[in-house]
Amino acid sequence: MAGFLERNVSAVAGAIERTVANEASCRARGLLQAVDPRLKIAALAALVLLCSLTRSAALLAGLYVLATALAALSKIGVGAFTKRIWIFAPIFTAVVAVPALFVTPGVPIASLGPLEITGEGARAALMLVLRVTASVSFAVLLVLTTPWHRVLDALGSLRLPGVVVSLLALSYRYLLLLLRALSELFMARESRVVAPLPLRQETAFVSRSAGYLFLKSLHLAEGVHMAMVSRGWDDEGRREPRGAEAPPADPAFELRDVRFTYPGDIPGLSIDRLEIPRGRCTILLGRNGSGKSTLLKVLDGLLYPQAGSVKAFGRDVSERALGDGAFRRLFRSSVGLVFQDADVQCFSTTVREELAFGPRQMGF
What we know:
The protein is of the alpha+beta class. It contains 12 helices and 6 strands. The strands form 2 sheets. The protein has a 4-stranded antiparallel beta sheet, covered by helices on one side. It starts with a helix and ends with a helix.
């Protein structure tokens, strides 16, 4: 079971990555590569809407043929284009189309054991498969002929809410990261298995792998959120005006009787007194799990201790204090944090967007 799952997950991960991350086809001199991305997105929306509303199987088949013809005119191999579509189409249709064969009332045309397939069910399943196939064809065509960052830019210029564009960008990046993590988990397992395992152990491994991937996604989400907040992003979308007063001449940071505990009463930090002066390099040394990363996140206003006080430049650093726009802008423009995990630190789709993220939050 694990071997079967491993092969399929690796195949799907590779196919998704080739479809959305490989931009070689975007650089070809084809028909659609020369079209403005905004026009392509508008046409895609109209065609997908047409696929959703039509009741004609012939029209859906014709739309699929149209997408294939456009792929050929855009220097995309018809075989490669078809493979990409049929990786996605079964995922979206199998859960609904297969039961529809049996549960849709109508005239029986075949049987599978005690289950009867009706003519109406077969037509409903066929329509669903054609509908999804045609829709996915145009979506894949858009991605194969347009670099992903240009798709995001076009969505922004079409006045799609910024939070939606950000979610699409993050989903694009972290879906691939999670699939790669799962593939590497299977590789690690394969390197340490010397004989086939009993079915019960195989099933337990698959279950634990799903749980691991879920926890990994939570860890990434929390880390990315902290990285965005650390660089000035505001949950409510507020932007502070340019210009910030210089920090006062107090010590950079002062901590008094700070206690921080993670959920489950796991100790994270216990500091009676700590002052970090301005104008000097202060180095933190300690074994793994001693609280260095927790302390850095407390200093950066990403975690708030349950007891004690934290001050930066002579002012309290608390959730309430950082709710004040002027202090938040002063603090975020004066304090920076480089995260240990590069996949958390760099969350944008291009180098330009990555470098521009912080300045944009500061109003530039």
